[in-house]
Inverse folding.
């Protein structure tokens, strides 16, 4: 044994010289080492569990929120004594398109149009629910509801489900009063109302819609120009949104009535 | 003898009668009259107003098309009813009918069938004759409407909770003379039909309107027939769609002018 060591000593140690490290030799107690190892283990396992729960391993994400389950886009704009509301007509379930003719914009009366985006089943149920309430209103008041009153009704209906909400974003567009002043209202899923004067957007394509509308909107547009602007804005936005498109419908409401036109969009 | 058995609705008399229910029906007999006729292409209801005073504020009627009628009420877009009796009792039941119709539409996506609604209202009325210790509703209804299964229909619902479908019916004051007039008009002689069955005439809406005006002219207390005292309502098909209309006073006057030859007959 000593012969081997002598050989090592003689060959390497003659050439290499160990560095002069003035190291203090730490001699921790065994409890300290144990605590350190335990702590390190805890950190590692906690990190692993956190990763598994917050970002579970999967290949891609189906949808981030329930509002993307069906996907839809609606925009409403105000002009001079007229309003227009436009939306796409795709009915899809996640990334599959099921129908091309689903209507999400409804006529409440000759002065009020009501559109909803979000979860399709809630859209259909709320449509029936508002028809119920409006029929009773017409029978009892013997007149038609004004857009502002209807908007408050929508907000109250949505807030009544504050802790188990309907997953929709409604838009109300109408002409208010004797002078046919344009009226726009959008609320969130629990009924917080906003009354913008220019335009309002909702749905999965709302971010691109906001940008396009901001660029092309101008005040006091006549019905023809309003129709052009809102159509171009909607088409531009749904082309960029995977979950909207497959056809669109535009309604222009003036004091003479509602004109409805269907536009072709990209079928993808 | 009957006094011991008529204070509560929930007890029979020894003769097997429910006096409270009968007294309720008596209340109807003193109310303003209502006539309904079922035609082949529609139903017409006509009523006589009781509260007629120049002090009534009618300004809203002239401004808008609001009918503001006293005895005729729309229950749904396919259903109208005429009321005879205590109007406040009727208002409760009309609210219930309206809610029932909308709930049916919400659940089934179709207009409520007329008989189902009439049955529902009558079940409520019957409840008040059997339990609860509350008095019955002092109101009779004439329900007129259309549904896809049975076409145009006319029903009479009385305070006891009974109902039946009629071709022509009159309730309220002078309903006996009105009914006998209607019966004689509707009967066809055996010779006219050709076969040996005694049937009833089939009237269209125009002929039915004429008949209603004639009946009201004969049975009403007042001498002149104007929109002040009368209300009319139709259920008919216009361009394939069902339309229920309670006529505004202007239209009532036009209608009475159109049929004034019938009024001036007597």
């Amino acid at each position: 044994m000593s012969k081997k060591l002598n050989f090592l000593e003689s060959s390497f140690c003659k050439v290499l010289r160990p560095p002069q490290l003035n190291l203090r030799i730490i001699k921790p107690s065994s409890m300290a080492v144990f605590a350190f190892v335990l702590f390190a283990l805890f950190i590692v396992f906690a990190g692993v569990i956190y990763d598994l729960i917050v970002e579970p391993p999967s290949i891609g994400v189906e949808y981030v929120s329930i509002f993307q389950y069906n996907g839809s886009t609606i925009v409403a704009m105000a002009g001079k004594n007229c309003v227009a509301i436009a939306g796409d007509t795709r009915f899809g379930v996640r990334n599959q398109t099921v129908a091309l003719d689903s209507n999400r914009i409804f006529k409440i009366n000759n002065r009020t149009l009501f559109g909803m985006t979000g979860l399709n089943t809630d859209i259909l149920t709320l449509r029936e629910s508002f028809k119920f309430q409006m029929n009773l209103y017409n029978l009892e008041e013997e007149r038609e509801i004004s857009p502002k009153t209807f908007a408050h009704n929508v907000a109250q209906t949505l807030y009544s489900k504050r802790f188990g909400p309907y997953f929709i974003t409604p838009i109300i567009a109408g002409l208010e009063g004797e002078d046919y002043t344009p009226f726009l209202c959008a609320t969130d899923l629990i009924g917080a109302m906003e009354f913008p004067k220019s335009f309002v957007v909702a749905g999965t394509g709302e971010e691109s819609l906001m940008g396009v509308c901001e660029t092309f909107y101008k005040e006091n547009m006549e019905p023809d120009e309003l129709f052009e602007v809102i159509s171009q804005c909607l088409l531009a936005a749904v082309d960029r949104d995977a979950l909207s498109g497959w056809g669109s419908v535009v309604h222009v409401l003036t004091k003479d009535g509602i004109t409805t036109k269907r536009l072709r969009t990209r079928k993808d | 003898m009957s006094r011991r058995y008529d204070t509560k609705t929930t007890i029979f008399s020894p003769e097997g009668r429910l006096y409270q229910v009968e007294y309720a029906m008596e209340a109807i007999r003193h109310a303003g009259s209502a006539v309904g006729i079922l035609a082949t292409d529609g139903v017409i209801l006509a009523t006589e107003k009781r509260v007629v005073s120049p002090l009534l504020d009618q300004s809203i009627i002239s401004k808008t098309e609001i009918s503001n009628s006293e005895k005729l009420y729309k229950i749904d877009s396919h259903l109208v009813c005429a009321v005879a009796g205590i109007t406040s009792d009727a208002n409760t039941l009309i609210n219930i009918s309206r809610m029932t119709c909308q709930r049916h539409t919400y659940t089934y996506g179709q207009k409520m069938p007329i008989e189902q609604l009439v049955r529902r209202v009558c079940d409520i009325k019957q409840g008040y004759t059997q339990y609860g210790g509350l008095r019955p509703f002092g109101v009779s209804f004439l329900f007129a409407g259309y549904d896809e299964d049975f076409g145009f229909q006319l029903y009479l619902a009385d305070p006891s909770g009974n109902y039946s479908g009629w071709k022509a019916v009159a309730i309220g004051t002078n309903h006996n003379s009105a009914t006998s007039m209607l019966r004689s008009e509707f009967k066809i002689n055996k010779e006219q039909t050709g076969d040996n069955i005694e049937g009833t005439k089939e009237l269209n809406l125009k002929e039915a309107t004429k008949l209603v005006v004639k009946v009201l002219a004969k049975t009403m207390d007042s001498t002149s027939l104007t929109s002040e005292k009368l209300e009319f309502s139709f259920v008919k098909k216009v361009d394939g769609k069902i339309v229920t209309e309670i006529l505004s006073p202007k239209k009532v006057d036009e209608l009475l002018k159109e049929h004034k030859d019938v009024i001036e007959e007597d």
Notes: Chain B touches chain A at residues 64, 66-68, 74-77, 98-99, 102-103, 105-106, 109 (CB under 8 Å). Chain B has nine helices and ten strands. The CA atoms of residues 82 and 204 of chain B lie 20 Å apart. The beta strands of chain B are 34-39, 42-48, 72-76, 79-85, 139-147, 151-157, 163-165, 168-171, 230-238, 241-246.
